[in-house]
Design brief:
Elements lengths: L12 H14 L3 E5 L7 H6 L3 E6 L2 H13 L6 E5 L5 H4 L5 E7 L8 H11 E12 L1 H10 L3 H9 L9 H10 L3 E8 L8 H6 L3 H12 L11 E7 L1
Parallel strand pairs: 1-2, 1-4, 2-3, 4-5
Antiparallel strand pairs: 5-7, 6-7
Helix pairs in contact: 6-7
C-alpha cells in the first residue's frame, strides 16, 4: 500500500498527518488538487503512488508543476488542467475522486459556495475534501500586535480581502455544499510565531515543534488561534 509520507516541516505537518491517515487506509487513490499550483502537495502524493489531477488558473504555476513532476519522475501520475476551482466538473467525471484538496482557495474565488459545490460534485460517496483556509481570529491578533488597530477591526468584522474565515462560517459553508465535517484542525498554531533562528540552531527543534503542532492542532483554544483552519469533510 502506498504511504503518502512527506518530510513536511512544522507549517503543514498537521495537514500531511491527516492526509496520510486518510490515504494510507485507501491504498492507491485518485486525488484532485484544486488550485494545486506548483505541486507542493501533488508531487509528493504522486511519489507515494497516487494518481493526481491538478486544476489551477495559472499557466506559470502549471509549468513549474510539470518541471517538478519531471524532475521527481512522476509526470505520468499527474494530470494538469488550466482552469478555476469552479471548473472541476469540466475536467473530472462526477463521483470519481477519492480526495479533493481545496487549500487556500476559498479566500480568493468569486463564489466560495459554488467552489465547494464543485468539490463535492467530483467526490465519490465516502470520499473526502481537505479544506484549508486563512483564520480570521489569527488575522485580528496579528494586526493588533503589529499596531494596526483599524485593520484589526476590519478583520474582526470580516471586511478583508482576501477573505478570512472562522470555524462557524467555514462549517456552514462546508455543510451547505453537502459535505459532513469530520475533523477540525488549527494549522500553524505556533509555527509562524517561533523565530526561524531557534528552529535552525537548536538540536531537534524542528521535530519538537512538529510534535507540538500535532498535539495542539485539535485542542481549543490553541486550534482557534492558528494561522489557518483545516477541516476534513466527508461526502
Amino acid at each position: 500500500m502506498p504511504r503518502s509520507r512527506t518530510h513536511a516541516g512544522p507549517r503543514y505537518a498537521v495537514v500531511w498527518a491527516v492526509l496520510n491517515a486518510e490515504l494510507d487506509r485507501r491504498g492507491p487513490a485518485h486525488v484532485v488538487d484544486a488550485g494545486g499550483g506548483t505541486g507542493g502537495f501533488a508531487v509528493p502524493l504522486a511519489q507515494a503512488g497516487h494518481r493526481v489531477t491538478v486544476v489551477d488558473p495559472s499557466p506559470d504555476a502549471l509549468a513549474a508543476l510539470a518541471r517538478r513532476a519531471a524532475e521527481r519522475g512522476v509526470a505520468d501520475r499527474i494530470t494538469a488542467h488550466q482552469g478555476d476551482a469552479d471548473d472541476l466538473p469540466a475536467f473530472i467525471e462526477p463521483g470519481t475522486a477519492d480526495v479533493v484538496l481545496c487549500h487556500s482557495v476559498l479566500e480568493v474565488v468569486d463564489d466560495p459556495a459554488r467552489t465547494l459545490a464543485a468539490v463535492a460534485g467530483v467526490l465519490r460517496t465516502g470520499g473526502c475534501a481537505s479544506v484549508l483556509v486563512a483564520n480570521r481570529v489569527a488575522a485580528v491578533v496579528a494586526r493588533a500586535l503589529a499596531g494596526h488597530f483599524a485593520s484589526a477591526q476590519d478583520a474582526l468584522s470580516g471586511d478583508l480581502e482576501p477573505r478570512r474565515y472562522d470555524l462557524d462560517a467555514l462549517s456552514t459553508l462546508v455543510s451547505k455544499a453537502g459535505l459532513v465535517p469530520e475533523r477540525w484542525h488549527g494549522v500553524r498554531v505556533l509555527a509562524d510565531l517561533v523565530p526561524g533562528a531557534v528552529v535552525d540552531v537548536e538540536p531537534d527543534a524542528e521535530e519538537a515543534l512538529v510534535a507540538l503542532e500535532l498535539a495542539l492542532a485539535e485542542r481549543p483554544p490553541y486550534r482557534d488561534i492558528a494561522t489557518q483552519l483545516h477541516v476534513l469533510a466527508r461526502r
